Amino acid sequence: SELGVERRFVPESCPRAVRPGDFVRYHYLGAFPDGTRFDSSYDRGSTFNVFVGKGQLIAGMDQALVGMCVNERRFVKIPPKLAYGTEGVPGVIPPNAVLHFDVLLIDLWNLEDEVQVRTYFRPEKCPRTVQVSDFVRYHYNGTFLDGTLFDSSHNRMRTYDTYVGIGWLIPGMDQGLLGMCVGEKRIITIPPFMAYGEDGDGKKIPGQASLVFDVVLLDLHNPKDGIAIENQLVPESCERRSQTGDFLRYHYNGTLLDGTLFDSSYSRNHTYDTYVGKGYVIAGMDEGLLGVCTGEKRRIIIPPHLGYGEEGRGKIPGSAVLVFDIHVVDFHNPSDSVSITIHYKPSNCTVLSKKGDYLKYHYNASLLDGTLLDSTHSLGKTYNIVLGSGQVVLGMDMGLQDMCVGERRTVVIPPHLGYGEDGVEGEVPGSAVLVFDIELLELVSGLPEGYMFVWNGEVSPNLFEEIDQNHDGEVLLEEFSEYIQTQVDTGKGKLAPGFDFEKIVKNMFTNQDRDGNGKVTAAEFKLKDQEAKEEHDEL
């Protein structure tokens, strides 16, 4: 004669219980005391959806549902006076029938409910939170209130990307995402009137369903955003900052806003080399690399419309904010020439180096960031060259001009006057600016341009006869070489310094041997001034 309620399963967590006025969705089996079934929501494939305590149910069920938790199972015995009484339901429920219901509560909400947000992880640093009109990328698991999964971006292995607060989402999600930080994790519980309402979505979400979203925010930007720059290390000395048209070499780590690494120049052990402001890199990087110093470290945060846009590229998803931690190794401009800084110049500096002079000098060679490449000091010997003869890179030939013995200077050489785009494998990186700290130790004056040998006095009028020692009218290479050696040894003549004696002599002999037969005759033999008249250069 009285209502009977048996709680057959009660979940450990019950944050909310049914109260009069709540809307519930539940499954049930309806049977008579002898076990004969008269109704079942399971057979219809949909829950029974109704307000509690508003007379929409038989009185016994209205009472029995009060206090239930989602996922709770109750066995309810309802006497006739709280069911269909003396009349019953023709063809279904006989008069004065006791009814048994096996009830499982699936969902519960109230018209006064609001979106509920519970944050269970929030990063220590939160420089920015989601605002209306922001674009976000997030992962989520979507469940009903009973825990049943209806959707997951994780399963699709792709974030959900959308604007917030402009109607692209259900109202409850629009509201629930506001105020989130990148990396934050929160549970957003949405009543149906702020979700898919009475009709559901026509697919997996039934009508009047509360929705629970477990969300982790991965990315956040606004279409109005520009790049953001965070200076991490700026050298105390910064004589020059990068400008449009400069060529930069820099290292970088590229990550997404949630810290996921997508690329690194360090892993390739090679800098990224590019022009700045010319469209060779994404627009945000073009802008972010302007105004940097050599040795500077900065973080450049690039919104997707200045990065790889909606489509992304490779490991970079569409609409992703990019974070680049860069370290500028060096930069130059194609219009740069050699830069010379004199640190010490002797007071008696009358003889200056010029093309053709033989120089002996010490140097330390480094990159613009200070990385040491080479040093003659470590080898214990000087570097010896003939200036302007192509024995060193063009920039060094230029940097050693007009130097006196004892002078110390720093020569900065741009790559187009150094080792170019290719560099020297294993020694000098491609497109590298080179810095040489130089001290000139010895200078031997060279010969006038175009000469490999000159006389210190008057030239004998019988020069050919003197060279032709056996007087056979022909001079062989051995005779020619012996004669030149004697002139040098006795101080009557001078060879161009810094070159191999045998090569110079052979070169001179070959120029005289006009028919190439290995012999020089009197008819072939001509001095330099005689050749000049015939527009022939001995060299």
Automatic annotation (TrEMBL):
Residues covered by the EF-hand domain: 455-490, 500-535
This enzyme's EC code(s): 5.2.1.8
Residue ranges the record marks as coiled coil: none
Pfam families found in the cross-reference section: FKBP_C
GO molecular function ontology, one term from the record: calcium ion binding
Residue ranges annotated for the PPIase FKBP-type domain, each copy included: 21-109, 133-221, 245-332, 356-444
One GO CC annotation: endoplasmic reticulum
Localization, UniProt: Endoplasmic reticulum
Keywords: Calcium, Endoplasmic reticulum, Glycoprotein, Isomerase, Metal-binding, Repeat, Rotamase, Signal
Function: PPIases accelerate the folding of proteins during protein synthesis.
Protein name per Swiss-Prot or TrEMBL: peptidylprolyl isomerase
Phylogenetic lineage: Eukaryota, Metazoa, Chordata, Craniata, Vertebrata
Gene name tied to this protein: Fkbp9
